[in-house]
Amino acid sequence: MERISGRQIILIGSIWVMDSTLISLPAQMVRFAKQDAWLSLIMVAAIIALVLWCLSKVHKRFPNQDLYDALITRWPRAGKAVVFIYVLFFAVILIRDIRTITDFINVSLLQLTPLWIITALLLYFINKLVSGGIEVIARMIEFFIPSFYFILLLVPALSYKEFDLSRLGPVFEFEWYGMATAGWYSFSYIGEIIGISFMYSNATLQFRHGLASLLIGVLLLSGVLWTLLLILGTDLMPHLTYPVYELVRQVKVTDFLDRFEIPMVAIYFPTMFVKIGFSLYLVCHGMNRLMPRVPIDSVVPAVGILVYVCSFWFFRDAVQLIDFNREWTALAIWPELILPIFLSLFLRPKQKQTRPEQQQEIKPDT
After folding, report:
1. Domain-wise residue ranges, the chain
2. What is the pTM assigned to this prediction?
3. Which residue in 89, 241, 267, 363 has its CB near the most CB atoms, within 10 A?
4. What is the DSSP string of 230-247?
5. Domain 6-344 CATH superfamily
6. pLDDT single digits (tens) 47-102
């Protein structure tokens, strides 16, 4: 097991919550929940915290094993079927994120570059990153993720003059159906944090690490939603494809620094690449557990090529990607909620059988 610190695990878990969610979800959440979109995040976070607690119970029963190892060790056949389900789950996340970031790069920076070139270059870089091992990926986050979070906190500080508090009202009129719908859309994205349970054992990962990363991610997302609501409002946001990017474009520090979105995306892209790298690692790590004779290094290029093809095969454009969020939760709720609860109830180590000599009771002398 490669060395990973608790601080790195917290940062890794937080990018699972944050990165993909920032691109496509804010507009959809505000469309249904209006000014109460941030409350949907809190409701979803409470459910995901329960899931993390269930998975931490499984970790304690199988010391020094991640969930892939625990499943196959305890249930050789059924466990492989569950591992295969999670491999497919992380593969879909990988394909979706690749296409999402490719479309975003094409819209924000490289409008004239074909999508297939952007995707090929991106996957080549991520393949090289994953081939270096999970410890190399974890070290990348030490600079980029804190810098990214600092910029997120800097945006409201630089744009506070545009705040309109009336856009947060009415405060006490809760649209529960809209909040539930927004929570449905965000559940699959925030629930991706369970991926850390498949990378580390209980010797490295503990419940407090997962809970801390969940809280950091949800609080930062809530802050982004508040800033969007205060500046853009509930009427404009649902009509924007990338509202966070449009918000950052409005930030002007000085006359010479009126393109604040450039340093923003320069920090954001590496964090997204790291998240995609972890998804690729989870897919290859799971395939290695299903086929132990096949080394991970030989699986990574093949999976990268498959992901490249599927990213164009599954999604036609960015609009179809955003519409996919509604159906995706219906599929993701099984590996993110139902299976973790099932595993916490039934995945237990075999009871050690006592020897016959130990079972015989010593009769006292009469």
Report:
1. 6-344
2. 0.91
3. 89
4. HHTHHHHGGG-SSHHHHH
5. Amino acid/polyamine transporter I (1.20.1740.10)
6. 999 999 999 999 999 988 889 999 999 998 999 999 999 999 999 999 999 999 99
